[in-house]
Design brief:
The protein is elongated, with a radius of gyration of 35 Å. The longest helix is centred in the first third of the chain and has 27 residues. By secondary structure, the chain is α+β, with helices and mostly antiparallel strands. The strands form three sheets. The protein has an eight-stranded mixed sheet with strand order 9-10-11-12-13-14-16-15, sandwiched between helices. Strands 2-3-1-4-17-18 form a six-stranded antiparallel sheet, with helices on both faces. The chain has a four-stranded antiparallel sheet with strand order 5-8-7-6, covered by helices on one side. The chain has four domains: 58 residues; 82 residues, 2-Layer Sandwich (Alpha-Beta Plaits); 96 residues, no CATH class; 161 residues, Aminopeptidase, CATH 3.40.630.30.
């Protein structure tokens, strides 16, 4: 059953005994008054004539009242779920605003089906801003970007779409970023992917909407084969809710969207992005920033990748056990095993700090973890207390904002005063939690979205089911 708005019981007018008692008392009062007036008139000289005239006036009044009541009772009642039609040129959102909706529905692949759907939207005073079609074997999935009156409810929209022949309808709130047409948006994502290997997971997420993206390497951080593989051409699984793609760096990329099945068109677009990344090979944007520390020493901040693996291991050798323990929260001997994973662009972005002589003295990691991205810092002992960690953290937060993240969190210990001070130095709202003996500090890097933009405003109707899509994570749950 589709989502239907039902009028509350308290709004339905019901018969009540008190109302009947009042009407009965009024009737007796009217009879008493009429009897007194009749007695007065009957004993007068023109009594009979006045009674006849009064009877004619009374009959005429009763007849007019009956005609008027019947006319009102036969007027078409206003529908409780649909807005009343308005004259041409008059907008239904007069005195109110409009909102953007993304809607996807399946229609029959036959002439006139799309026209009927567009006509139904026009009846609701909805503007169609963009339209994409996704052909299927037995129909067509039409994806709309709509501008609708703010007072329009999803129940009204889904009922009207269903009446026009739309099935498996899914609706969610959109924003101004969705106003970019699909070809322009896809070309932009391809450009970003071509410039930076680390952009592939983010590009897939922007391309496919809220989904869970996991990169499973061929070899785990501990050095054991994971056994995960995927066909060269990719595959759709679990009723088309999971995409499997072969990672050019080894392993598998899985994209899961349980609340909305992928179409063949979306699968082809995702596979094209992965093929582009595979053809271009490993790449990291060039460029670096030279900074001068308060004591006058110069350092260079740049992006790092797996080509910096040997330099990072050499930095580990120069770090004390306490520094490595505060960073990796585990046996110090296992620290080197995680470096290849941390430096991989599939799982995030890494910033490196070099001295004027080219020696690596600090690393800052931004690890994809859904909406709450993890940040981690490691600064060599001899270079601690000079503001390097705070500088790296500010840059990592800027990268997180650019990637569309809402939160970043750091896993540390209460005794790590340097990391705690660096998080406080961001001057952002912070949340502190203790988990299994460790301190988790979460920073809100972007203002909270209004409730209308949250996933709970998304509605999917599938043979009467109403689901709420859930945002997913973007990297495997590895927290070295």
């Amino acid at each position: 059953m589709t989502d239907v708005n039902v009028t509350p019981a308290k709004q339905i007018r019901r018969h009540h005994w008190r109302r009947d008692a009042v009407e009965l008392a009024a009737l007796f009062t009217a009879v008493a008054v009429a009897d007194a007036v009749a007695n007065t008139i009957a004993h007068g000289p023109d009594g009979p004539y006045l009674l006849i005239v009064s009877a004619v006036v009374l009959v005429a009044t009763a007849a007019f009242h009956t005609w008027w009541s019947r006319r009102l009772s036969h007027a078409p009642p206003a529908a409780p779920t649909d807005p009343a039609p308005l004259p041409d040129g008059e907008r239904s959102d007069a005195g109110g605003g409009t909102v953007l909706w993304r809607m996807r529905t399946t229609v029959r692949d036959e002439p006139g089906s799309l026209a009927a759907l567009c006509g139904a939207l026009a009846d609701l005073r909805i503007d169609i801003l963009t339209l994409q079609t996704h052909p299927l074997a037995d129909g067509t999935v039409d994806e709309f970007l709509l501008r609708a009156p703010e007072s329009l409810r999803t129940g009204q929209l889904t009922l009207r779409v269903a009446a026009a022949g739309g099935t498996h309808t899914w609706i969610e709130r959109a924003d101004a970023h969705d106003l970019v047409d699909a070809p322009t948006r896809i070309l932009g994502l391809a450009t970003r992917t071509a410039l930076d290997t680390a952009e592939l997971p983010l590009a897939l997420r922007r391309l496919l909407g809220r989904c869970t993206i996991r990169s499973v390497p061929a070899v785990s951080p501990s050095g054991r084969p994971t056994g995960r593989t995927a066909p060269v051409e990719g595959a759709l699984e679990r009723d088309d809710t999971v995409i499997l793609l072969r990672d050019p760096h080894g392993g598998v990329i899985t994209v899961e969207r349980p609340y909305l099945p992928f179409t063949p068109t979306e699968f082809a677009r995702a596979r094209a992005l992965v093929e582009l990344d595979a053809r271009l090979g490993p790449r990291v944007p060039g460029g670096h920033d030279v900074l001068t520390l308060p004591e006058g020493a110069e350092i260079t901040v740049r992006r790092a990748d797996q080509s910096d693996l040997q330099a990072a291991r050499a930095m580990h050798d120069r770090c004390s056990e306490r520094t490595l323990g505060l960073r990796y929260h585990g046996p110090v001997a296992d620290a080197d095993r995680y470096l290849a994973h941390l430096l991989s662009p599939r799982f995030g972005r890494t910033l490196a700090v070099e001295t004027a002589s080219g020696r690596l003295v600090a690393l800052g990691h931004l690890l994809w973890d859904g909406d709450e991205t993890e940040v981690a810092l490691l600064v060599e002992d001899d270079w601690q207390g000079r503001g390097i960690g705070s500088e790296l953290l500010r840059r990592l937060v800027a990268l997180a904002v650019e990637a569309g993240c809402d939160h970043v969190y750091a896993v540390t210990q209460a005794s790590n005063t340097g990391m705690v001070a660096a998080m406080r130095g961001l001057h952002l709202p912070l949340d502190y939690q203790i988990e299994e003996g460790t301190l988790v500090i979460t920073a809100q890097v972007r203002p909270l979205r209004a409730p209308r933009d949250e996933g709970r405003d998304a509605v999917r109707t599938d043979e009467g089911a109403t689901d709420t899509p859930v945002a997913g994570a973007a990297r495997p749950s590895v927290r070295p």
